[in-house]
Design brief:
Order of helices and strands: EHEHEHEEH
Largest sheet: 5 strands, mixed
Strand order of the largest sheet: 1-3-2-4-5
CATH architecture: 3-Layer(aba) Sandwich
CATH topology: Glutaredoxin
Structural class: alpha/beta
Strand content: 15-25%
Number of domains: 1
Radius of gyration: 14 Å
Length: 122
């Protein structure tokens, strides 16, 4: 292992990249809740929120899928999320979908992995 190597595992994000995938995710929320995390790769606040979320997230990705949207690469998809869920765009932003509806949304320093976990487990 090199001097700057890290043994920390990478977070199991599922990258969200298409409108078709978004529609499948929304449909799948009838079987189990899902999390959408919108992140601006150019924003230090967004990076801090994402890092804090990843450090505190303890749930299994198979049980509660976590989808990641790169806002810089997919701004149109972010707008589509807002249109389909009725949740106004923020960055960073976490949205929990259940039964095709947004049951939680938080942004910036309000993104709390423990709070989202309790919502998913309810």
């Amino acid at each position: 292992m090199g001097f700057f190597s890290s043994s920390k595992p990478t977070f199991p994000w599922i990258e969200l990249t298409s409108s078709e995938q978004l529609k499948e995710i929304i449909e799948s929320s009838t079987e189990k809740p899902v999390l959408l995390f919108k992140h601006s790769t150019r924003c230090s606040i967004s990076s801090m929120a994402k890092s804090r979320f990843e450090s505190n997230w303890k749930l299994n990705n198979e049980e509660f899928p976590t989808y990641y949207l790169d806002l810089i690469a997919n701004r149109d998809l972010s707008n589509e999320i807002a249109e389909l869920t009725g949740v106004s765009h923020q960055s960073p932003q976490a949205i929990v979908l259940k039964d095709k509806k947004a049951v939680h949304q938080s942004s910036h320093s309000g993104i709390d992995a423990k709070e989202i976990s309790s919502i998913l487990n309810a």
